[in-house]
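User: Reviewer 2 asked us to show a designed sequence for the structure in our supplementary figure. I'm pasting the structure tokens here. Could you produce the per-position amino acids so we can include them in the response letter?
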């Protein structure tokens, strides 16, 4: 008997708080208790197909059976996913770690991990007949949602904070139909914005509630699974602002485990900026999640002082699964950025190296065993951050001067 690969194994949405089942409709919160929803899948067809036959194609939509989109006509792609999982021996040596893997999300079409969730968010917007999508962003989500909406022929209302870096602003201006700048921080606008998308015919492209959007980031975990032959790393470090990547990563690893393809689950680490650390604080104190007042952090994409229900979800996973949370200061983030660039040649943005700075701190505190295999998610390219380009004073050369310069530096 052969089993056909289903377009989607999704059978509904379930409330993470009360367990109430919902149909695969456009619903953002539980109709019974207001809790967050997660897609539910019937894994049996994939179990029958087995790990070698379960997926076909390349990139994010390779995992379509485990994404909640019912028609391939609604898929949208710019070539996201299939990002490199790099061995990092020089950096591992420098950190004193036996084996370090880097999942480099800067290789996505708009340079960040956001493209995974933008692809499924825009596909879901199409699935439910929307002509417009919106997001509140520090820059990365805005350029990504803007690009995918445009690709699919939708309008994108991108609300971006005025401190966004020049390259991010240029990117959003280029790709998004409607870019609006706002004053203050993410938290200042997000509550008003949540009400707006409930009232107007605009699809929720934000990180706080939409199960369809979040699910796209699960594919990162599945790529780690396939690339390692389901011998998962001992530890995976995720950047956490609202928590989409972390939560969906946990969901992905649990699916591999439930299918019997992975024999164990990795320890997940949530890395936060010390300027936006509500989850790390609550985890350290053992107390409830309390919002923090934001101030500027170089890791712009980690700017969220009040992750609300998503933050509670992250905390629940951390506590149930015995994960770890860590917060890092801006100088440590910039130091990790330089170290990564000079050891492995990988230029990542500050948001992208929060995980690496977090790993260094946990190693220094002996909270992690350096003999394990550790994977850090590097969530953005460095090409979108504003940094001084260095001295711009050039010099004129004769051939003799040119040779003398290189010879001197080579020490030859
Ligand atoms: Zn509920």
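Assistant: Here is a per-position design you can include in the supplement:
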């Amino acid at each position: 008997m052969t089993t056909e690969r289903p377009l989607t194994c999704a059978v509904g949405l379930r409330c993470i708080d009360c367990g109430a089942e919902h149909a695969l409709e456009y619903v953002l919160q539980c109709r019974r208790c207001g809790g967050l929803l997660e897609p539910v899948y019937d894994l049996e067809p994939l179990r029958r197909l087995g790990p070698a036959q379960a997926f076909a194609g390349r990139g994010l939509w390779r995992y379509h059976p485990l994404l909640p989109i019912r028609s391939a006509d609604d898929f949208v792609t710019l070539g996201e996913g299939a990002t490199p999982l790099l061995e990092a021996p020089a950096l591992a040596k420098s950190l004193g770690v036996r084996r370090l893997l880097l999942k480099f999300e800067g290789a996505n079409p708009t340079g960040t991990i956001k493209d995974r969730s933008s692809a499924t968010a825009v596909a879901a917007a199409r699935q439910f007949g929307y002509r417009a999508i919106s997001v509140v962003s520090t820059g990365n989500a805005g350029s990504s949602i803007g690009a995918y909406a445009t690709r699919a022929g939708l309008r994108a209302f991108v609300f971006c904070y005025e401190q966004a870096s020049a390259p991010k602003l240029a990117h959003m201006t280029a790709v998004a139909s409607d870019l609006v700048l706002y004053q203050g921080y993410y938290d200042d606008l997000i509550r008003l914005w949540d009400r707006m998308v409930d009232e107007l015919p605009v699809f929720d492209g934000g990180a706080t509630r939409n199960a369809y959007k979040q699910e796209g980031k699960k594919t990162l975990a599945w790529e780690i699974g396939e690339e390692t032959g389901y011998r998962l790393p001992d530890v995976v470090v995720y950047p956490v602002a609202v928590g989409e990547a972390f939560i969906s990563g946990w969901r992905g690893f649990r699916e591999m485990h439930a299918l019997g393809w992975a024999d164990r689950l990795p320890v997940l680490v949530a890395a936060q900026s010390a300027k936006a650390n509500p989850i790390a604080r609550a985890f350290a104190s053992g107390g409830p999640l309390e919002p923090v007042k934001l101030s500027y952090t170089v890791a712009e994409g980690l700017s969220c002082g009040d992750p609300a229900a998503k933050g509670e979800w992250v905390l629940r996973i951390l506590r149930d699964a015995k994960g770890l949370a860590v917060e890092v200061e801006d100088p440590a983030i910039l130091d990790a950025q330089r170290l990564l660039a000079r050891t492995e040649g990988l230029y990542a943005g500050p948001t992208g190296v929060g995980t690496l700075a977090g790993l260094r701190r946990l190693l220094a505190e002996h909270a992690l065993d350096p003999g394990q295999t550790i994977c850090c998610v590097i969530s953005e390219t460095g090409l979108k951050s504003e940094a001084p380009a260095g001295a711009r004073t050039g010099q004129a050369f004769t051939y003799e001067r040119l040779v003398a310069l290189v010879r001197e530096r080579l020490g030859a």
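For the response letter, you might also mention the following. The chain has a mean pLDDT of 95. The longest strand covers residues 155-161.
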